[in-house]
Structure formats: structure tokens, C-alpha cells
């Protein structure tokens, strides 16, 4: 801690030379939206001293408090109606997810045992209700909470109900959201207008300290023990409220506000007015996100049942890679298909050529066989004709020889006759 204070002191002393002329401009209005969980008047009373503290610590700027309820805070951030927000963990987690809010400090609540940077919720009934001893006894009863989107005033209790197998929306006779201030829920349970209720930790003790209630009139349901935590508790503990900067807020101004908050001394009047001890470095709000995922609330209302846009948003890298692979496979398939078609066409053409050649070969073979048959027939016929001619020639030759022999004999006879005469 001494080293931190020394470092902050050095940085703080060097600020005048680092602050640009625009930051040093006079009366520059800076609006700090505060979730008014106990009503707007109480919010102004509790947090205006902190705004005045920041105005003193950061010359040239006039910080003002803008009280907001659960329904107002989102639009105020979206439409840039505030430059900073101070809100509960659930509200901060939603603003971080939806609008890029960034926590710069976490509140440390003031307790008799010192500062605590955690909070929880308390679930309670009237002490005289013998029929309500445990959370399971709340089935069929009237239950009151702050708001359906309230972190300490509903979500923490809801998670405990869910873990014990209780569905408040089905098992309760009536689930009523009373809104701010949370004090009204405590009074409604005390006066019998509700059988049980839930508020953030330290509220019962604060109201008792102010003389509004008697703690003996209430029974704490599902009591929990956390080492050193001084308040009645029914749930696990979570990081306390976050002081967050918004996207449109100048970075230099955010740095100045962070330094001013972290160097606020213990016992400062601003801290006393806000009933807190001091500010600490921003805590890890992962447990808050886990709770919201489990309950499917805030930005995680569709967690586990993704729509097309959510699916694209959460898995766009994998989807892109899968699409690229599918496109590559499709292109390869198209290429192979085109090759197959070309190959099939070529094969069909070759088959046609082969069939044509086979037909031609068959025709040639048939023609050859026909020619051979005709040649054989012609040869046979010529041989027969030749034999006939040879036979005729032989007969004619024999006839001629015979005729010549007769003629020669006759001529010899005639010569002999002539010689005889």
C-alpha cells in the first residue's frame, strides 16, 4: 500500500504538465450515472459529496450525479447521457457486454469491521412466521424483490432458489417486484404485505441503525457465514459496485478520475456521506458473469439457446473456417465431377470408336469370308470349266487324229491304186 500511495502521489504531482488544454477548460460538465437502489433522493444525498470531491481533485471539471433506476441506466449509457456510471455488479456486467463500459475502481463498503469490497443478498421473513423456516417453505407464499433485473435485489436470491430446486416463477404464490427504494420491501414484509423478500446485504442493518426497523422482527432464511463479513447473508459474496468509464469518455479524464478515487483518504467526508470506506483497484467480475449465464439474464438471456446472430457472433471464426473448408471441398468436388464427366465423355467416345471399329472389323471379316467363298466357288467353277475344256480338246484332238489317220490311210490307198494302174 505505501508503494501504491507513493506511485499515485508521483503521478498526481505530474498531472498539471500532462493535462491537455482541453481538459483544463473551465466548468466542463461531467455526469456520473448512479443506480439509485434506495431512491433518487437518497442517491443524490449519498453521492453528491463524491461528485464534489472529484470536482475539487480535477480542476476545470464539474462532476454531477445523475440518479438512475434499472430501466434508465442502459438507455443513459447508450445515448451518452452520462460519462461515468456507478452501479451494481450485474448492471455493470451488462453495460460492459452491451456498450463496452470499463471498470476503473471497485467500491469498498464501510462496516464496523472495516472496508469490504464484496456484497451479497439476504432473504428474510417475519420472525413470527413459524411456517417459514427454510427456503423450501416459501413455496406457495408471496415473495417480494426489487426488480426482475436487480442484482442484489433479486438475481442473487434467485440463484439460491434455483440451486435448491425451487422455481420462483412457478412455485411462489406471487412474485412481486416492488422497485426502488429497497426499503419498501423490508417494510412490506414487516407489515405482512409479503411473506418474504430479498434485498442486498447491509440494508437491514442500515435501516435498523437509522431506527426504521428492529432486526429482531425478521428471520434470516438460508443463513450463510463468510469470514469477517459483518452483515446478515443468505447467498455467496460477489464483487461490490463498480465505477466504470464509457467508450465516449476521454481516456485522459478516465485516468484522472481513477487516480482521484484511488487516492481518496480513509474517513473523507465524501466517503462518509456515501457510507463507504474507500475505493480499490477493479476486482474480477467473472463470478458475476457466471451467475448471469446460469440464470440466463442480462446479455446472457439466450445463453445455451443460440440464435443465428448469436451463433455467428460467438463462433464466427469456426464458422468461417468451416465454410472455407466446405467451399474448398465443393470446388474440389466440382473439379472432380467435371473431370469425371470429361472422362466419361472420353470413355463413351472411345467405346463408340471401339464399337465402330469392331463393326468395321466384323464387316471386313464378313467381306473377306464372302470373297474367299466367292473365290473358292469361282476357282471350283474355273476348274470344272477347265476340265470340260481339256476334255473337249482331248476329244477334238482325238477326233482330228482319227480323221487325219483315216485321211492318211485313204491317201495311201489312193497312191497305191495309182501306182498299180
Helix amount: 40-55%
Class from helix and strand fractions: alpha/beta
**Please, what is the CATH homologous superfamily of the domain at 2-117 and 238-305?**
Periplasmic binding protein-like II
Sheet of most strands: 7 strands, mixed
Q: Mind telling me the C-alpha Rg?
A: 55 Å
What is the level-2 CATH architecture name of the domain at 2-117 and 238-305? 3-Layer(aba) Sandwich
- CATH top level class name of the domain at 2-117 and 238-305: Alpha Beta
Q: Which topology of the domain at 2-117 and 238-305 does CATH recognise?
A: D-Maltodextrin-Binding Protein, domain 2
Determine the number of helices (DSSP H or I, runs of at least 4 residues).
13
Gross geometry: rod-shaped
Order of helices and strands: HHEHEHEHEEEEEHHEHEHEEEHHEHH
Our estimate of the beta-strand percent is 15-25%
| pLDDT averaged residue by residue | 87
Could you tell me the number of beta strands?
Answer: 14
Distance between the termini: 190 Å
Low-confidence spans = 1-25
